[in-house]
Amino acid sequence: MFKFSISRDKMVKNKGERIVAIFEAAKGAIVLLAGFGLLTLVHKNVQIIVEEIILQLHLNPAKHYPRIFVDLASHIGDSQLWMLALFAVIYASLRLLEAYGLWHGMRWAQWLAVVTGCIYVPLEIYELLFRYSWIKLVTLIVNVGIVLYMSHRIRTELSIIK
User: Fold this and answer.
1) Per-domain residue ranges for the chain?
2) Is residue 9 predicted with pLDDT exceeding 70?
3) At 162, is the pLDDT very low, low, confident or very high (cuts 50, 70, 90)?
4) End-to-end CA distance of the chain, in Å?
5) DSSP letters of 84-129?
6) Count of C-beta atoms within a 10 Å radius of residue 112
7) pLDDT of amino acid 160
């Protein structure tokens, strides 16, 4: 029989990466579920469904944000739903692959976390500057924190190797 053991030091070192892995896996799972949800709308009147959701949430369909969704839903076709679902699967696969790599302490996953995190930072800053909200601020802080933490882990591991 094989016996797997991980030293306590290695588990402590990987704790932060495992937290990031869980976070990335959660993002991937949510987007994957959303993608499958989009596929349930194929061959259906999306506008009516969106209007019903807005009413169930007790939102005013004439307000700015609900109106955006209603307008989008009135112009979306089956091919666009399939395309959105495909993009959701691709994005979710990337997030889940990153989570797997981080969970197992793989260096490529650390780099992937830094690169993909850095891609979002300018967009999040832009959004925060033009439409401030606490959710956007927290999202930016979490994302920058992940990028800084993973960058620190990469630097630390590279200095140990040298």
Assistant:
1) 8-105, 106-162
2) no
3) low
4) 36
5) HHHHHHHHHHHHHHHHHHHHTT-HHHHHHHHHHHHHHHHHHHHHHH
6) 19
7) 77
